[in-house]
Write a structure and sequence with these properties.
The protein has 66 residues and is α+β, with helices and mostly antiparallel strands. Helix content is 35%, strand content 12%.
Length: 66
C-alpha cells in the first residue's frame, strides 16, 4: 500500500501563493469593487501582495498541502 497524499484545497490554491522563501502571500481585500470612491494612494497600496501572519500562515499551510 502506498502513502496517502494530502490534497490541496482548490479554494486555498486560488487565494494564496507560497513565495520562494516559503512565506504565504495573499492579495489585499477591498480592491475589486467601488474603486471610484477610493483615492489613488489607496488603490496603489492595495496592488501589492501581503504576507500572512504566523498564526494565519500555520492555519493555511495545511490547506495548501505544504
Amino acid at each position: 500500500m502506498g502513502k496517502i497524499k494530502q490534497k490541496t484545497k482548490k479554494s486555498a490554491k486560488k487565494r494564496f501563493k507560497v513565495s520562494s522563501s516559503g512565506k504565504i502571500m495573499m492579495k489585499h481585500s477591498h480592491r475589486s469593487h467601488q474603486a471610484h470612491s477610493k483615492t489613488t494612494k489607496q488603490k496603489r497600496h492595495l496592488k501589492h501582495d501581503v504576507q500572512l501572519t504566523k498564526s494565519m500562515a500555520k492555519r493555511h499551510r495545511y490547506t495548501l498541502g505544504k
